Amino acid sequence: MGGLVADSYVPDVLQQMNSRLIGEALTEMVQFQKEFKVFSSQHTLETSFKLLNIAPVGDADRKGFFKFLGLLKKTGASVDGKATKLSGHDQIIASLQGNLESSRPLSVHFTSHPAESPKGVVKVTSGDRVFNFSSLVFITISMPMINADRPKAGARKK
Q1: Beta bridge partners of 82
Q2: Average pLDDT of span 102-125
Q3: What pairs with residue 114 in β-bridges?
Q4: How many domains does one find in the chain?
């Protein structure tokens, strides 16, 4: 979201995403998925997150967040360290759909990593113990983000 959403909103949006996919909220999301197919190839991430009211508060930042989600269609993806044929956008949808429709859905933890490492790839890993104080096992979805201060391609010195 770097550069498209104010820095102060990024942790908040990640927390909104994370709080919908853990504990009692996860149970609710499983029912939403069963009834409405919130995460499926029929819906974009933008549509799904709008439905769940996950976005920054300010209008400009909301637009930036939804633009960021759209840009994930141009990124690659990996699952447990192996490249997939799906875009980052579609891999997030497929991973959430598969998890929520499974017989034993895991909590999901959204985070970010520098877009340069690996370059423009959404990383999905399963079986993570995200919190050292908890025995919960998670699926982690790490999205590539650029530094907001990074110069634009046309402005870089050669």
Answers
A1: 79
A2: 90
A3: 145
A4: 1
